[in-house]
Structure formats: structure tokens, C-alpha cells
Amino acid sequence: MISNLFNIGSKAVNNAQVSINTTSNNIANAETTGYQRADAVYDSTGNINVGGNSLGTGADIIAIQANWDSFIEDQYLAASADLAASKASSSYLSQMDSILNQSADDGLGTTQDAFLTSWAELSMYPNSSSEREALLGEAESLVYSLNSTSAELKKMQYTIEDEISEQVASANEYIDGIALLNEQISASPDNYELVASRDQMIRELDEIIGISEVVPSDGQVKIYTESGMPLVEGAETHNLVYTSARSTESLMPESTYTGDVNFSGSSSEELLLEFTSSGPDGSAKFKVSFDGGKTWAEDENGNTLIYTAGDVDNSVNIEGVDVYFSGGTTDHTEGDRYTIVPKSGLYWQGNDSSLINCTPMTDASGKDVSNRSTGGSLSGLLKVRDDELLPVMSNIDDMAAALIWEVNAVHSQGAGLTSHLALEGTYSFDDQAATLSNSGLTYADNIESGEFSIYTYDADGTVLSNASISINPSTDSLDDVVNAINTAFPGTLTASVDSEGFLKLQSATDVSFELADDSSGFLAAAGINTFFEGSDASDIGVNSYIQGDPSHVNCGEVGTDGLVSSGSNDTAKSINELMTKAITIGNETSSQVASLSEYLSGVVSGVGAAAATAETQIICDSSAAQLYYDQQASVSGVNVDEEMINLTRQQQQYEAACQIISVSRDMFDTILGMM
């Protein structure tokens, strides 16, 4: 019995030492991020029978156990991932709002209004050179504003994509690190500090890409993306990949099509093509979805848009992406699908190196598509790029393209202070023998059946001749237009095409010319007698021909007598009317009818509203994340005051255990003394 008492005391001393060590370690790591408060777990060592009595044998410490609530942690991970996504989005939305701030003197809204207003001022003084100089100054300010806005937004895109690349690399390091810790924990399952390190690493990964975790009975944690793709299963890993634009196909079982889908250009949208009829390239039809097949693109009347599969010469443009097929010697089958991702994206990589897209996607109602990533900073970065930045960049480009076209369409048929001796187009034709609609001209789709007039003058300004040149974009080529001009003005005006595909008009000696009454849009599309050059916000510029000679800023127009009245101001007035005139801006799947000012105001206010919403979302997400963080901290965090109390109690436990040993030794000595 005395020996049992001694054993109880010995074990109690050891247990107290372990408990004191554990508590001391808790205190030492009170400020260590991710540290989980540990407790010594005691278990009775059972009883022995002595003289018919059941006597206890003390207790052993069977484990050092960290305090952790998995249920709370699951809720924290979800909230933390949402917060990380909100923060990533909000940061860039605030920057976008600053870039588009219209209150600035050099902001887009201010410079655009000043430019259009300057045409009204020119209309009041149509013969003024100083007004033309002032107008060119306003034009240069607008061009600079558009160019710089485009450049800043493009730089932001590159910054976001660089950050995405870095975060994917970090996520993969965490994935590999968690798998390594799984192996180490498997070899040392009672090492609670390894478990705590793994839990902290899981939190770090969750902030990058929202995850869910499963902890089987063997303690080998399994990590999945929100859409259920495994990232860590024991020691096995699946990495994330951030890669460039790509396409995939999903053909019907009976399909025999052997060709490939091809595309050029970029877009914030993913394009899902589904064939609605069978047949070869040139006749088979397909529809397009931007949300993975939940809805299908429609025209302004609500009818599903149907496209014809064509080769490279008959490509179709969808959201800025030219789509065509090549190499097909057999028919498409109804139901065949092709997915085009015309942007860099986030993918999960399988063991066979196959890639599954987990880039965030929203449907037509703005809701997240369920099989994609939604939480974590990666999701926030990709969402702000695809749902905010790229659409805004596209909107600014669409507005610039509309501004260029509308101003040029008026200016190209107007007249300035002096007639022309020579003109060169600013837009090149890829194929001068092809029909105008298939010539590769930037604004080819804007050319309509119609005509334009040319007037020639002698050295005294007397009309020599005039002719109307008919245009049919479906049947006429640039060569046809050149021949028609040369036939109409033999010896006085020569039309030609240079080696780069630009149309040139050259008058004979002592002959000048004017252009007028273009109902076809050909002159503006070719860049003849235009004010602007370029096609979007990044490359818009003032025509160098006008910059070199401001007298060619057109204010008036050719009258019915073939002459330009000194007080003519119809061209300037028409361009000024663009301040309030409703025009179509955008493409067939996302166009809007509005004035330039209204359109820009809508874009800017949309970004401002999104930035404000993101800030509010951060507040909500922060509250939720903090709530679960605090709940977990109350379970796993170290309270130094409590640990000091525990330390005092354990010190007393140690002293009592020593007393047990001392008593048992005294009892043993007494017995020895009786012998």
C-alpha cells in the first residue's frame, strides 16, 4: 500500500511538472499568431484491490491537447474569405473612382464637355483662326484625358494580374505546406504545435481562396475549394494555375466535327457557344451565353442572337472577340459546345494536368455561379477585374469610338477655310479588292448604301466639276471606289491606295477639292477629311492633317452651288449637338442609346456606387469575421490572467504531490524502524 502511495505521488509530481510546463508555454506564446492554448489531459490509471478494498493508483497525462472549435472555425473561414474578397475589390474600386473623378479640371466629363462646347463657339465665329486654335486645344485636352484614363486603367489591370499571379504562387506554397504538415502530424499525432501551425496555414490559404476543410479521424486534414475541388488530401496536393486565354470543347457523342474554334481579341466575358443546328462551317448556327449557359445573349427585342459559324474571313465579333472556325472537314452537330475564355483565368489542376476553370463568374442577375470561386482575395481581384475594371475600360473605349465616329461622320462632309489639295485616309483597308463590309476597315460595319459628293475648283475657286460616288458596302470594294473617282475626275483628281492600304486623294496642279453630302459613311470610315484618328480611348488623336493646318477644321459645308459660304457653320453646330444628341454606344450585345455626357455619367456613377457598396460590404464582412474570430479566441486564445491562476494551482499541486512522496517515505522509514 505504501508503494502505491509513493507511485501516486511520483506520478502526481510528473503530472504537475508537465502541467506547469504547458501553462508556461501558453504564457510564453500569448502573443504568437495562430497559437492555440494547450491543456494537459488527465486520465485515471485505475484501481487495485488491497485487503478487499479498491484503491486508486493515481492519474497519467495521456495527451497535451490544443483548444479548438472546428464548428466555429468553419464559420470563421467562410467569413474571413468573404472579407478578403471584399477588401481586394474595394481597394481597386476606390482607385477606379479616383481615376474617373469628373470633378477634376482635366477629368473626362469636363474635357469632353469643353470640347463639344468649343464647336458652339466656333459656330459663332466661323471664319476665326483663333477659335480654331482654341478648339484644337480643347481637343488635345480631351485626347490626353482619354489616353491617360485608358493608360491608368490598363496599368491597373496589369497590377491586378500581377497580384493574382503572386497570390496563386502563395496559395500553392500553403497547399504544399499543409500537405507537409499532414505528413509530420501523421508521424507525431500528439504534436499540438504542428496542428496549430497547420490551422494557421489553413487560415492563410483561406484568405487567398475560400476553402472548406474536413478532418477525418486520422487527423489528416482535407482541403477543398468552395466548389468542391480538392486542394489537399493527406499528403496529396492539387495546385492552382493562373493561365492565359484559352478555349475548350465539349462535343456531342455523335459529333464528328474535326475542326477547331479560334478567337482573337479579349473580353471580360467568357463565351459559351452552343450549336443550334447541324451543318458545315458557313451554314451551322450557334448561340452564345456569358454565364455558363444559364441565359443566352439577346438582341434589343429580346430574341436570342444566332450566329453563323464561319472561317477567318467570315468571323463574328462577340463582345470584342472575333470568333471563327478552321480545319473542319465534317459537320457541326446540334448541341456541340465550345467555351472561349478570352482572358487570363484561375484554374484547378488535376493529376493528369487537366485544368478546370474556377474563375469567378456572375449570371445575368449578378449572382455568383455556384461552381466557381467566390471567396478569398483571388476571387475579389478577379471579380473587380472582370465585373468592374474590364467593363469600364470597354465602356470608355466604346464611348471614345462613338465620339470618334460621330464627330468624323459630320466633319468628313464639312468644309474649312481652305479647300484641299490632297487627303490621306487614317484607317487602312486590309483587302482593297474585298467588299467594303469585309475589307477589314475599323469602321466597316458603319458603312451603308448611299453616296458622297466631290467638288473640284480652279485656282480662283471656281467650280470645275462635281460628281456623286455611289457606295454599296455589300458589293463595292475599295478598288471600285477608286475607279469611280478616277473615272469621274479625269486629269483633275486622282484616287489611289498606298502600300499600307490607306486611300489617298490628290488634285492636279492649280486644282483643289471639297467633299460633301456623304450618306454612306464611307469618308468617315476611310478617315478622309476627318477630325479624329484612332478607334478607342487608348489611341484616339487629332488628325495630323488638321494639326498641321487648323484652317482645315471644318465649320461649314458645301452649298448647293458647290461653294462654301464664308458664314457657313452647319458642321460646327451639328458636332456641338452631340452634347445632347442620343446616339448608340456599344455593340449589339451591350449597346446603349444615350448622349455622350449621359453615357459617361452613367459609367462614372456606376463605379462610384460599386466603390461605396464595397466599403459597406467590408464593414459587414468585418463584423462577421470578427465575431467568429473572437469566439474561437475565447476557446483557443491565451488569457494570461487565467494562466497565472492555473500556474498557482499547478504549483500547489506540485507541492502537494511532493508531500505525498514525503509522507510515503516517512511511513516507509517508520516501518523499517519497527523491524
List the main descriptive attributes of the protein structure presented here.
675 residues, 43% helix, 12 helices, four-stranded antiparallel sheet, alpha+beta, five-stranded antiparallel sheet, elongated
Provide structural commentary:
The chain has 675 residues and is α+β, with helices and mostly antiparallel strands. Among the domains are: 2-67 and 637-674; 246-343. 43% of the residues lie in helices and 19% in strands. The strands form ten sheets. It has a five-stranded antiparallel beta sheet with strand order 10-17-12-13-14, with no helix packed on it. Strands 5-6-7-8 form a four-stranded antiparallel beta sheet. A three-stranded antiparallel beta sheet has the order 9-18-19. Strand 6 (222-225) and strand 7 (230-233) form a beta hairpin. Helix 3 runs antiparallel to helix 10 (570-576) and helix 4 (129-187) packs antiparallel against helix 5. The chain is elongated. The two termini are 18 Å apart. The relative contact order is 0.14. The model has no long low-confidence stretch (mean pLDDT 91).
What does the main sheet amount to? 5 strands, antiparallel
Query: Could you tell me the mean pLDDT?
Result: 91
Which shape, going by the Cα principal axes? elongated
For the largest sheet, list the strands in their spatial order: 10-17-12-13-14
Distance between the termini: 18 Å
SS summary, helix count: 12
Structural class: alpha+beta
- Segments where pLDDT lies below 50 for 5+ residues? none
User: Beta-strand level of the residues, as a percent range?
Assistant: 15-25%
From the alpha carbons, calculate the radius of gyration and give it in angstroms: 38 Å
Please bin the fraction of helical residues: 40-55%
Number of strands: 29
